[in-house]
Amino acid sequence: MTGHPAMSVSPLVDPDILRRALDLVGEDLRGKRILGEIMICSGSAFLLRYGWRDDGTKIEIDISLDGKNGPIRQACDWAGNNLKLVEGWPERLLPRLIGDGIVREGGFPSGMYPSWEKPGLRVVSAPPQLMIPMVFLATLRPMDGMTVQDMEPAIQIAAHHGIRTGKRLRRMITPYLESRPASYSDLEREVDRKVWQFEEAIGFFGLGPPLVREPRSLRDVADAIRGHPDWYGCAMYKFMEAFFAEESRAARQAMLDPTPIPTGDWKNDTWIGAIGEHLAQRWNLLIPAWTQEEAFMGGKMPYFSTELGTARDIEIVETPPAYRRRLIFGGAEPLMNAKFPNAMKVTMPYWN
Asked: What is the pLDDT of residue 10?
């Protein structure tokens, strides 16, 4: 979990070899029914692991740091030895190739390994607003062999971003631990649920807002909803239908590449950025540079799609990287609908 100076890494590292190493790690972890995560933040790598407990009535998620002798570290060491990589390659090489929280167009990606459908490993280029709460949640579990020195990179990053007191830390991690305030009534929650169902039905029956034309790119989506933020659901649904219907890689890339003009509604702009990055990762396309612009990276408070505590734990683990780094938490397939390619659907836990 320790950070290393960038100058200690050879600029001649072959990204394809690291991809193969990540595949090997993912295959090994999947065989052990483990989901691991390598979280890259501010030049450091943090190894976490997730486990499921399911007694038939309730699913609980364990989030823990991997430790010096944990299964993630062991799998990384094994893969590194097979491919003759330098010792500690996740910390020494991945931050150099993945970058400091920015997914660059055509660059080494963060994603899921060995495949989106059945990964054993997730690699996330994470902002501090995600990394700090995740590491904190992980420390709530027993930490075999971990010392305060092992936590130094996370503490340094937190301090650099103004988290220097227990009160500030609590303010950051509270949304991950608690539901909405008690004043958020059952009636309001039911209204929210019904509004969401209504939007889905409106899109299904083609009775949505009067769009000038069917969106064929995310730029079209932004143009369609500018001044009409409540049209977002309809416009994005139409775009996703068109994207899923395409079979040409070039055509799909062309639907992501045009740069949207921010709408001014930060929530909608955040979702547009997350969807652009996620679709590129999910369909193995080039990630458009515009998805990394500040306007499309979101706010500083996490959003969860459910109020249930146990379900919230599951969302933290299931959510794909492009959403996690924008602090949007939901399901393993956030864009799945009736037109989603059936053969590509993810099931959770990933080894089922």
From this structure: 45
